[in-house]
Amino acid sequence: MVRKFKVLNIKCEGCAGTVKKALKDEFGEVEVNLEVEPRVISLQANENFDEASLRSKMKKLGYPFEDEVLGTFEEVGTKAKSFVSCAIGKMDQKL
User: Fold this and answer.
1) Considering the chain, what percentage of its residues have pLDDT values greater than 70?
2) What is the Cβ-side half-sphere exposure of residue 8, based on CA atoms within 13 angstroms?
3) pLDDT by residue (tens digit) across 9-55?
4) How many CB atoms lie within 10 A of CB 10?
5) Distance from C-alpha of 67 to C-alpha of 55, rounded to nearest angstrom
6) What mean pLDDT is predicted for residues 51-75?
7) Which CATH class is domain 2-46+60-94?
8) Is this model's pTM higher than 0.85 or not?
9) Which pLDDT value is given to residue 5?
10) Which positions ≥6 away from 31 have C-beta within 8 Å?
11) Is 68 left (phi over 0), alpha (psi -120 to 50) or beta?
């Protein structure tokens, strides 16, 4: 079954590339829709799908789910992490 999640802080192909690369081993192919706001990620969820793990990985990259409640410090932290993740994704695209 395809699952879709609304995600914050994804701005560009660099961000999308980082997300796809970071999640591929555990969650398989991930699609990132850059045409909508907030951005939507889609992935194939099997019977072993662990949404908590997905949420945790996305938050560590700086891309929390839209429905997460973040304090001010957490919100600023995830935005800062997302800038780094974006830059990494852009560098990976050039290689």
Assistant:
1) 99
2) 19
3) 999 999 999 999 999 999 999 999 999 999 999 999 888 899 999 99
4) 27
5) 11
6) 95
7) alpha beta
8) yes
9) 98
10) 41, 42, 43
11) beta
d(CA 90, CA 67): 27
Burial of 2 (0-12, 13-18, 19+ CB in 10 A): exposed
- Which amino acid does the sequence have at 68? E
Q: Tell me how far the alpha carbon of residue 11 is from its chain's centroid.
A: 11
Helix (H, G, I), strand (E, B) or coil at 31: strand
CB 68 within 8 A of CB 74: no
Enumerate the β-bridge partners of residue 46: none
- Short-list 61, 54, 53, 58, CA closest to 89: 61
